[in-house]
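Here is one such tokenized protein:
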Amino acid sequence: MYDGRACDTSFHAASTLIILAVVAGGCSTGLGPKAVHSERPDYNQQIVRSADAEMLLNLVRLRYNETPLFLDLGSIVATYGYDASFNAGGSIPGSGAGTATLGTALAYGEHPTVTYSPLTGDKFATRMLTPIPLELFMLAQNGWSDERLLLLVVQRVNNLSNATTAAGPTPEQKPDYEAFADFAERMHRLQSAGLIGLRWDMQRRENGPAAKESHLWLRAPTDPHSPLAVDVAAVRRYLDLDPRRNDFRLTDFPSDRQPDEVGIRCRSLLGVLYFLSQAVEVPAADAQAGLVTLTRSDGGQVFDWSAVTRRIMTIHSQRDRPEGASVAVQHQGWWFYIAANDQTSKSTFSLVNILFSLQSSSSEGKSPLLTLPVGR
């Protein structure tokens, strides 16, 4: 006997099952591209935040005369799983209404594995102790202030030294920095006026490939009574330049330069970090407890390092977690941070991270790997 209600029920159950299968198929299609679209920005942001926090923490450690440690992010491997299952059942009795049952099961899983490699041994020496190459000053042609580059990276230009003792653990005596700071400021004004700059030439050799040469050029302003003319004269005096020349080849050897050369000795990356560690504002309680080295001026007073570093970076400290900080870390019960509205410090901090990347070793590390499975 034909039962229209039972047939209708079976028909609706089958239709529902087909619709769910189609929907499930549509949801699972393109899972990989969707994961890349949603997950990659999140990973990117967290990697940048962790790298910034690690860099700031190591600057604070150096100010406290503690051992720095960097972990190279070797790889991030994320696997995704997506399972879907459906079941259906029903019955059509001889009389009365039919019955039908439907069931679904959906499962999604993400299993990232993060690999870190401690920066030690040869890798540490290569990246942290090798002097930064002169090619770095190509950054000055891409919008970076030469004053910032000079104060941060340069240890010596000809016979002019830049706070030499600040490139290591905090010294007990005030560094000699005033002349170099004045020189860097004058260089910045001349750069802004287009009266001084760097260029790179390819020089062909008879026996061998062409070599790239770096040159410093400068010229006097049109108006000889301009304040910029005073800056040009001061720069020439600081560097003891030949007054008959306006173009000088750059060399790595300030103590053995020729009359047509300007010798620049750059700091190592570790020297740069030690220099910037002096920008940390140490809490008075920690200073009184002897947790940091205090630098003294010639008169015996505590030397204020902001006189040296305030032009390029300031790292604040306070007891409570700061709000609106660009980057912040906790150390010795205090919070150390760079203010979000301090564009000068943020620019310098970004430059340091760029230097850290440029100085990375191309060789394979020999250190043990630390692999952390996350979210299992």
User: Anything to note?
Assistant: The first strand starts at residue 71 and ends at 91. The chain has two domains: 4-118, 131-358. Confidence is low (pLDDT under 50) at residues 362-368.
